[in-house]
Write a structure and sequence with these properties.
With 239 residues, the protein is α+β, with helices and mostly antiparallel strands. It is 39% helix and 23% strand. The protein contains 8 helices and 9 strands. The N and C termini lie far apart (52 Å).
């Protein structure tokens, strides 16, 4: 079956199932599937107001090309888990798109089809490059503050029954990792009584922000240039 015949099959499904936003199929799905970059197979999810493509045939290329895709895999081995969960897509119709046309499938068959392409892609990458790096936390570097000064600030925080400063640091450490060359720099500005932070990915600046002190009960709440919707004492991150 050629792509023109396949797209005619898909248009018939859209006309039958999609009640709203049929234009999304013609604007996104149709040109993508018609393009030379698209590789079979794919899973197609069709609901009354949406369609989604899970491009299994293109997954290996993505896995090889993008570090972020490999780190996503470390966090969740099924990259399409969201679509397989019961809920928003429960009443949708599911299809497998192949060179032979559309085949109606259920959720379990979709899960098996995903594994048939994800697992070999991972194994192929590891055969060429070795095991996927297991670094999932982002390294944090401190500037402008000594280790003893840092300990003193954390100790003062804990003396007030509060661990907000350490939690702000941990938040940077737990950032979503997308590359091997990724780290955060936290810089202390003693005169302002605050920290700034910046995340670097492959030598490019990313997320930036401040870690701001908002005072203690005995000194009163301090805005310090950053307003909280729910005012709390201690330290908080602002981006």
């Amino acid at each position: 079956m050629n792509k023109e015949q396949l797209l005619q099959q898909m248009e018939a499904v859209v006309a039958d199932v999609v009640k709203n936003y049929q234009s999304d199929f013609f604007q996104y799905d149709k040109p993508r599937i018609a393009s030379p970059e698209f590789k079979f197979p794919a899973i197609w999810i069709v609901g009354e107001s949406h369609t989604h493509r899970l491009e299994l045939g293109n997954y290996k290329d993505l896995f090889f090309e993008a570090e972020s895709v490999r780190y996503d895999y470390l966090r969740e081995p099924n990259p399409y888990k969201y679509f397989l969960n019961e809920g928003y897509f429960a009443k949708d119709k599911w299809f497998l798109i192949t060179e032979n046309g559309l085949q109606s499938i259920n959720r379990e068959q979709a899960k098996a089809a995903i594994e048939d392409y994800v697992i070999p892609a991972v194994k192929a990458w590891e055969e060429e490059n070795g095991p996927i790096p297991r670094l999932t936390k982002v390294p944090v570097k401190f500037k402008g503050i000594t280790f003893n000064e840092l300990k003193a600030l954390i100790a003062d925080c804990r003396a007030h029954g509060n661990d907000s400063l350490l939690e702000c640091f941990k938040m940077r450490h737990k950032s979503c990792r997308v590359a091997d060359n990724q780290f955060a720099v936290i810089t202390w500005h003693k005169g302002w009584n605050e920290f700034t932070f910046c995340e670097y990915v492959n030598d490019e600046e990313g997320l930036e922000g401040h870690i701001v002190f908002h005072g203690w009960p005995e000194t009163g709440y301090q805005i310090n240039g950053a307003v909280q919707l729910n005012p709390k004492y201690g330290w908080s991150s602002h981006t």
